[in-house]
């Protein structure tokens, strides 16, 4: 009996790399020869169609001993035990794995001959009936068999051996960087990865329905923008040949969505791909997904309650739980969430009062706390650095940080009862920002003053400061009603609700350094 599994590529770091490449080349040559042999014998290695009637998990769950079911299944061969006149193998389909029993006298001499040329990784179709083997495993007895795709590159297959009475897995496809680069292989050999992305889809679907049921309209706004804005970030720049003009990949969709509120929509939202030309780490990817929502006649107090309900109900929908585990912490998502101003939070965790301090005083405070700062940054950035270093990582349970200094939030409305701050909140969970919201500034005169102040910061060297967007200001001059706005980082929300430690684990194809 030959175990094709023994041909799997080893991925243990102790293996010699050149030997591993030689092994890979030998296996690929063998598989290409098998492909050519199949073609010469009149077997299509890549046929056009196979009609599937059932899937592994559903078939196993619905199995009835007294009533065998005739099914047609298709999937990738994951284990293979070739014997003389009868063999066993497992296929993996979109739901999971199921065992197949194939017998030469049942499928015919030619089909069985084709089967003998197959390998782990090949995709096949089987028609047959369900039964239970002597060992109790629900399986499919093949009556017809068809090759659907010959795999020329062997997939890595984890092996197990017993060491001191315990099962030890080796040769697993576990290297993080390789998994991210070859997500297609990761999904094949690590089925739990697929579950994360199925949950991601469910999270987005639930949020979309949550907004739509309240009467808010899903819209689309430009990705290529002549003036970028809506966030403090560096853009990616491109060139439009026909118009001979510079364009920017959007860093946010806020200013276009607010134009729609001006135009008369009372509630709009967009799931958007945004792009920021910044560093890459566990919580940042230069291309990311966020949802932004703008609702007329509401303020940031109303939006806090909506966010609490949204996150709580989304988690219930995918996990039937009021809590989640994130970065090693058990986090209770049941409302209400704590609310504290950014000044009070810094005073609580750093024992310093930042209110009414000049830029020089703030810089000295940061220095006393041990921060080394870029001399070009202004008061708002200094406060942000203090908060990000000493406060944010300690906010594990959901916390609304509210009432930011005006300079930190040029698009937010001045606070109705406190000078020098605006009506803004950020929700921090597990030590990370999850969403951002304002009572939106709708006074065009004040908005112009704020954006012109940002322009001065750019002259000081702050390349993340906002640009004066004349068309946006023109829209505000026509009149925008009171409005609450919200932006949620979808990737980070998925991390939180699925318990993933890195943004790369919730994005199918994260950006990587060149190989």
From TrEMBL:
Gene3D superfamilies: Bira Bifunctional Protein, Domain 2 (3.30.930.10), Nucleic acid-binding proteins (2.40.50.140). It is found in: Cytoplasm. Its main location: cytoplasm. Its cofactor is Mg(2+). The keyword ATP-binding applies. One of its GO terms (molecular function) is tRNA binding. Keywords: Aminoacyl-tRNA synthetase, ATP-binding, Cytoplasm, Ligase, Magnesium, Metal-binding, Nucleotide-binding, Protein biosynthesis. Pfam families: tRNA-synt_2, tRNA_anti-codon. Its EC number is 6.1.1.6. It comes from the Bacteria. It is an enzyme of class 6 (ligase). Mg(2+) 1 binds at residues 426, 433. Residues 200-514 form the Aminoacyl-transfer RNA synthetases class-II family profile domain. GO terms for biological process: lysyl-tRNA aminoacylation. It catalyses: tRNA(Lys) + L-lysine + ATP = L-lysyl-tRNA(Lys) + AMP + diphosphate. HAMAP family: Lys_tRNA_synth_class2. Belongs to the class-II aminoacyl-tRNA synthetase family. NCBIfam families: lysS_bact, PRK00484.1. This is Lysine--tRNA ligase. The gene is lysS.
């Amino acid at each position: 009996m030959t175990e094709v599994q023994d041909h799997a590529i080893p991925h243990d770091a102790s293996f010699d790399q050149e030997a591993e490449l030689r092994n890979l080349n030998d296996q690929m040559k063998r598989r290409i020869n098998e492909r050519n042999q199949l073609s010469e014998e009149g077997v299509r290695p890549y046929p056009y169609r196979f009609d599937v009637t059932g899937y592994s998990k559903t078939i196993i769950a619905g199995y009835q001993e007294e009533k065998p079911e005739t099914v047609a299944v298709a999937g990738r061969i994951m284990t293979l035990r070739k014997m003389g006149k009868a063999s066993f193998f497992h296929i993996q389909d979109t739901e999971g794995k199921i065992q197949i029993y194939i017998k030469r006298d049942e499928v015919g001499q030619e089909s069985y001959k084709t089967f003998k040329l197959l390998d782990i990784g090949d995709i096949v179709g089987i028609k047959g009936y369900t039964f239970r083997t002597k060992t109790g495993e629900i399986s499919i007895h093949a009556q017809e068999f068809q090759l659907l795709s010959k795999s020329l590159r062997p997939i890595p297959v984890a092996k197990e051996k017993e060491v001191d009475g315990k099962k030890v897995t080796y040769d697993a496809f576990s290297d993080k960087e390789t998994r991210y680069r070859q997500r297609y292989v990761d999904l094949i050999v690590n089925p739990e990865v697929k579950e994360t992305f199925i949950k991601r889809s469910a999270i987005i679907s639930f949020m979309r329905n949550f907004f739509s049921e309240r009467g808010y309209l899903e819209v689309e706004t430009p990705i290529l923008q002549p003036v970028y804005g809506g966030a403090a970030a560096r853009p990616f720049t491109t060139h439009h040949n026909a118009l001979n003009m510079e364009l920017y990949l959007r860093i946010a969709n806020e200013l276009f969505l607010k134009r729609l509120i001006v135009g008369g929509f009372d509630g709009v939202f967009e799931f958007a791909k945004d792009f920021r030309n910044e560093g890459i780490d566990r919580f940042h990817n230069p291309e990311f997904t966020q949802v932004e929502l703008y609702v007329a006649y509401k303020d940031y107090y109303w939006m806090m309650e909506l966010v609490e309900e949204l996150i709580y109900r989304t988690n219930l929908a995918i996990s039937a739980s009021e809590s989640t585990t994130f970065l090693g912490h058990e986090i209770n998502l049941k409302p209400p969430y704590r609310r504290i101003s950014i000044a009070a939070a810094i005073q609580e965790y750093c024992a310093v009062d930042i209110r009414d301090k000049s830029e020089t005083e703030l810089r000295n405070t940061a220095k006393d706390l041990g921060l080394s700062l870029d001399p070009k940054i202004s008061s708002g950035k200094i406060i942000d650095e203090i908060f990000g270093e000493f406060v944010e990582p300690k906010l594990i349970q959901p916390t609304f940080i509210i009432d930011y200094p005006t300079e930190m939030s040029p698009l937010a409305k001045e606070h109705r009862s406190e000078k020098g701050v605006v009506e803004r909140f950020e929700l921090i969970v597990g030590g990370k920002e999850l969403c951002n919201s304002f009572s939106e500034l709708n006074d065009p005169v004040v908005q112009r003053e704020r954006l012109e102040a940002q322009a001065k910061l750019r002259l000081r060297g702050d390349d993340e400061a906002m640009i004066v967007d004349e068309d946006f200001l023109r829209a505000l001059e026509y009149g925008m009603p009171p409005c609450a706005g919200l932006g949620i980082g979808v990737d980070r929300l998925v991390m939180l609700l699925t318990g993933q430690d890195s943004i790369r684990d919730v994005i199918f194809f994260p950006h990587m350094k060149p190989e």
